[in-house]
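Page 42, continued from yesterday. The earlier attempt failed because a stray header line got pasted into the input along with the sequence. Redoing it now with the clean sequence only.
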Amino acid sequence: MESLVTIRSFDNYVTAHIVKTALEAEGILCSLRDEHTVLMQWAWSRAVGGIKLQVPESQLQQAEALLGQMEANAAAEQETPGFIDEDTSQLNPDNRICIHCGSKNTRQENFDKVPAFLSWILVGFPIFFKSRKWHCFHCGEKF
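This time it went through. Structure tokens are written below.
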């Protein structure tokens, strides 16, 4: 039987399974070691070295090349401002474009919540003030 080589280590089992599935889709045999230990005793994750993704030595080069390509694609996607393939057909055409990330998945906030909350505490009922702020659902920023 061929020996297994650890190529990555994960703290999160979801990420470990996503990467494992991507490798298996390309025909690379792989397994996860210490997965159940980390799931049952999460505090031991650092002590055991996390969830280890292992592949046979014969497929090490192919797996490393595929993981390198996946990591490069993820880094390029994070650096891209806004959405390239954003489906804007269901969005309101009057939405503003976010100044932080370039997404059009935004919504104008009609009322400012902080003064309404403070007036509710001080006066006993909320007093709403109009707001001109927009909220971006992609990056979470207000502009």
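Notes: The mean pLDDT is 84.
Reminder to self: strip header lines before submitting.
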